[in-house]
Design a protein that fits this description.
This protein has helices at 6-14, 31-36, 38-48, 50-69, 96-99, 115-180, 186-221, 232-237, 248-253, 256-276, 316-381, 387-422, 424-431; strands spanning 29-30, 76-82, 101-109, 225-226, 284-292, 299-306. By secondary structure, it is an alpha+beta fold.
Length: 433
C-alpha cells in the first residue's frame, strides 16, 4: 500500500536552500489546527507562500497594464527655425537675424476603433491573472495539507511502533529471568531477541521518514510543523468533501484555472479584434504657429491632417496569431473539463472503496485483533499459550493497526486530491475575507 507523497518531493529538494531549522521563525505551524480549519490554513499560506506572493505580483503587473491601456496617445510638440542663411545673399542690407522665421506646433494622433478592444483585452488579462492567483493559492494549500497529513501519519505510526517495541523489551526482560532459571529454552529467547531487533529497525526507519516529512512540511509552511497533539481523528476530519457530488462538471467550471483559461481566450479574441482594426488609419491632427521676420506676413497659423496608409501592415498576421491563441485556449479549456471529470470520477470511486474497507477494519477486524492479543497475553502468562502464538498475535495486531493507519492516510490523500480537483480550496479562498 502506497501513501502518495509526490507533492512533497520538490519541497524536500529545496530544503537545502531554505533556512536551517534553527533559523526558522519562532512561530510554529499547528498541524492539528490546520487539518481541521481550512480557513486558518488558507490564511497561513496566503501570507507566507513565495509562490502566492509571486502570483500576486503578476496580478499587480496585469493591473498596471490595464491602466496603461486606458491612456491616450501622447501629443507631439515640435519647433522649427527657417531662413537661416548659409551662403552669400544679394540683399546685403538685411541683417541675418532679420531674415529668420520660427514656428511651434502640436500634433495629436486620434485612435479609431482601437482603444476599446485594447482596454478590454488588458482587463480580461488582469481578471485571468487574479484567477491564476486563486489557483496558485489553492495548489499550495493542497500541498501544505498533504505535507501536514504525511507528517501526522508518520508521527502516529512512530507512536504505534514505539509502543510495540517497549512491550517487546519489557517482555524480553521478563523472559531473560525465566531463561536464567531454566524455564525458557535458548531458542525461544533468541526468537524474542530477533523480534525486538526487527521492531527496533522499523522504529529507526520510520523515525527517519518522519524527520524527512517534518522537513518537507517546514519547507512548505516556512515554519516548524507541530504534530505533537495531532492524531488519526485529525486526519479523518481533514480535507472534507461532500458525500455526494451532484454536478462535478459545474464545480469544474468554477475552478480558477478553468476560468483563467476562458478569460485568456476572451482576451486573445479582443487582441485579434485590435489587430484587425489596424487596417483603419489613425489620423494625426496638427496645428502650428509661425513668426517670419523677413516677409510682410509675419504671423501665421497652419492646420494639418496626416493619415497613414495601411498598405502593407494591416495587422493581418497579428490577428491570425491571436485567433490561433484563442482557439488553442478554447481546446485547452475543453480538455481541462474532460480530464477533470475523469479525475473526479476516479477519485470518488477510490474514496468509496477506501471508506468501505476502513469501516470494516475499524468496526470488525481491529476490535477482534485487540481481543485476540489480550487473550493471548493472559493465556501466555498462565502457561496456556506458546511463545510463538503470542508473538504471532502481537505481530498481527501491530500490522493491522499500521494498516488501518495507512488506509486513513491514503483516504485523507484521496479526499485532498478530490478537494483539489473540485476546486473547493479555491472556492474557500475566494470567500475568505
Amino acid at each position: 500500500m502506497t501513501f502518495r507523497i509526490s507533492t512533497l518531493l520538490a519541497p524536500a529538494l529545496l530544503l537545502a536552500a531554505a533556512p536551517a531549522r534553527g533559523d526558522l521563525p519562532a512561530e510554529r505551524a499547528p498541524a492539528a489546527a490546520f487539518l481541521r480549519d481550512d480557513a486558518a490554513l488558507i490564511e497561513w499560506v496566503r501570507t507566507r507562500s513565495p509562490e502566492v506572493a509571486a502570483a500576486q505580483s503578476r496580478v499587480d503587473q496585469a493591473q498596471a497594464g490595464v491602466g496603461s491601456a486606458r491612456l491616450f496617445p501622447n501629443p507631439s510638440l515640435d519647433a522649427t527655425m527657417g531662413n537661416v542663411n548659409v551662403g552669400s545673399s544679394a540683399q546685403t542690407d538685411v541683417r541675418g537675424a532679420d531674415r529668420l522665421s520660427w514656428g511651434v506646433g502640436i500634433s495629436q494622433e486620434l485612435e479609431l476603433g482601437k482603444r476599446g478592444p485594447r482596454i478590454d483585452a488588458a482587463d480580461l488579462s488582469a481578471q485571468a491573472s487574479r484567477e491564476e492567483l486563486r489557483a496558485s493559492l489553492a495548489e499550495r494549500v493542497a500541498d501544505a495539507r498533504v505535507a501536514i497529513g504525511e507528517a501526522v501519519r508518520l508521527q502516529v505510526r512512530q507512536t504505534i511502533l514505539e509502543e510495540s517495541l517497549t512491550e517487546s523489551r519489557d517482555h524480553l526482560a521478563l523472559e531473560k529471568v525465566r531463561l536464567q532459571h531454566g524455564d525458557l529454552s535458548g531458542i525461544d529467547y533468541d526468537r524474542l531477541v530477533l523480534d525486538a531487533l526487527g521492531q527496533e529497525a522499523d522504529v529507526r526507519r520510520n523515525r527517519a521518514e518522519l524527520e524527512s516529512a517534518l522537513a518537507s512540511c517546514a519547507a512548505i509552511l516556512l515554519a516548524p510543523c507541530e504534530t505533537g497533539e495531532a492524531g488519526p481523528d485529525d486526519l479523518d476530519a481533514a480535507a472534507t468533501v461532500p458525500a455526494e457530488i451532484a454536478d462535478p462538471e459545474e464545480a469544474l467550471r468554477e475552478r480558477p484555472d478553468y476560468r483563467a483559461i476562458l478569460l485568456g481566450r476572451s482576451a486573445a479574441q479582443k487582441e485579434a479584434t485590435l489587430a484587425r482594426r489596424r487596417a483603419i488609419p489613425d489620423p494625426t491632427l496638427s496645428v502650428s504657429y509661425s513668426h517670419d521676420l523677413f516677409n510682410e506676413l509675419t504671423d501665421t497659423v497652419q492646420f494639418g491632417v496626416g493619415i497613414p496608409l495601411p498598405l502593407f501592415d494591416r495587422g493581418q498576421h497579428d490577428a491570425a496569431l491571436a485567433t490561433a491563441k484563442a482557439r488553442e485556449l478554447d481546446r485547452t479549456a475543453a480538455g481541462t473539463i474532460q480530464q477533470g471529470l475523469g479525475e473526479v470520477r476516479g477519485l470518488a470511486a477510490q474514496r468509496r472503496t477506501l471508506e468501505e474497507t476502513l469501516s470494516r477494519l475499524d468496526e470488525e477486524a481491529l476490535p477482534l485483533s485487540n481481543g485476540i492479543l489480550e487473550t493471548a497475553r493472559k493465556a501466555f502468562a498462565q502457561g496456556e499459550y506458546s511463545l510463538t502464538d503470542l508473538l504471532l498475535a502481537r505481530r498481527e495486531n501491530t500490522e493491522l493497526r499500521l494498516q488501518v493507519l495507512d488506509l486513513r492516510g491514503e483516504l485523507f490523500t484521496v479526499r485532498n486530491d478530490l478537494r483539489k480537483a473540485l476546486g473547493l480550496d479555491a472556492a474557500a479562498a475566494r470567500s475568505a475575507p
